[in-house]
Amino acid sequence: MIEAGAAAPDFSLSDQDGHTVSLKDLEGQNSVLVFFPAAFSPVCTDQLSVYEEVLPDLRARNAALYGVSVDNAFSLKAFQGSVGTTIPLLSDFHPKGAMAQAYGVWVPDRGVATRALIMIGPDLEVLWTHQPPSPLEIPGANLIFDALDAVAV
Amino acid sequence: MLGDDGPLVFEYADLECPYCAKANLLLTDLPVRRVFRHFPIVSKHPRARVLAHALEAAGVQGRFWEMHGSLLVDQGHLDDPHLWERCEQLGLDVARFDADRRSEAVAERVERDFRSGVRAGVMTTPTLFVDGVARPGVPGAELISQLSR
Question: Which of A78, A85, B53, B58 is the most exposed place for a label (fewest CB within 10 A)?
Answer without folding.
Answer: A78
